[in-house]
Amino acid sequence: MGFSKTTSGRGVTVVKVEGQLIVGNRQELKALIQEAMEAGDRKFLVDCTQTAYIDSSGLGALVTISKKIRENGGELRLAGLNEDLRSLFELTKLDSLFHIAPSLDEALQGF
C-alpha cells in the first residue's frame, strides 16, 4: 500500500495509488503532489488501477489537490477507477469535477 510517482513520455506526472486512499495516508499524497508542483510539474494523472477503496478524507484530499493544481495553471486527471469507485464519484457528483478515464492510455491522450 502506498504511492509511487513516475513521469510519462508526455511530461505528465503519474501518481499510482496502491491499496487505499484514506485518512491515514492522504497527507502523503498531498505532499507528493506539492513536491512535484514545486519542481514545476503541472500535469498530473492519478492512476487508481490498484486502488481498492477511497474514504471521504481521501476524496477531500483529491478535491483539494485538484483545486491547488488548477490555481497553478495545471490539470489533474484520474484513471482506472473500479466500478465501486466510479459509482462513488458519480454519487458524490465529483465525476463532474474530474476528468476520469477508464485507462491510463486514454487519460494521457490529449493531455
Kindly provide the name of the CATH class. Answer: Alpha Beta
Topology order in helix (H) and strand (E) letters: EEHEEHEHEH
The number of helices is 4
Termini separation comes to 28 Å
Which architecture would the CATH scheme give at its second level? 2-Layer Sandwich
Main pleated sheet: 6 strands, mixed
The structural domain count equals: 1
Strand content: 25-35%
The percent of residues in helical segments reads: 25-40%
Could you say which structural class the secondary elements and strand pairing correspond to?
alpha/beta
Look at the structure and name the CATH superfamily.
STAS domain
Number of DSSP strands? Answer: 6
Low-confidence stretches: none
Give a brief rundown of this model.
With 111 residues, the protein is of the alpha/beta class.
Notable features of this structure?
Transcription Regulator spoIIAA, 29% strand, 111 residues
Descriptive notes:
The chain has helices spanning 26-38, 56-71, 83-91, 104-108, and strands at 2-7, 13-21, 43-47, 51-54, 75-79, 99-101. The protein has 111 residues and is of the alpha/beta class. It has a single domain (2-108), classed as Transcription Regulator spoIIAA, CATH 3.30.750.24. Strands 1, 2, 3, 4, 5 and 6 form a six-stranded mixed beta sheet that branches. Strand 2 (13-21), helix 1 (26-38) and strand 3 (43-47) form a beta-alpha-beta unit. Helix 1 runs parallel beside helix 2 (56-71). The longest helix is centred in the middle third of the chain and has 16 residues, at 56-71. It is globular, with a radius of gyration of 13 Å. The model has no long low-confidence stretch (mean pLDDT 96).
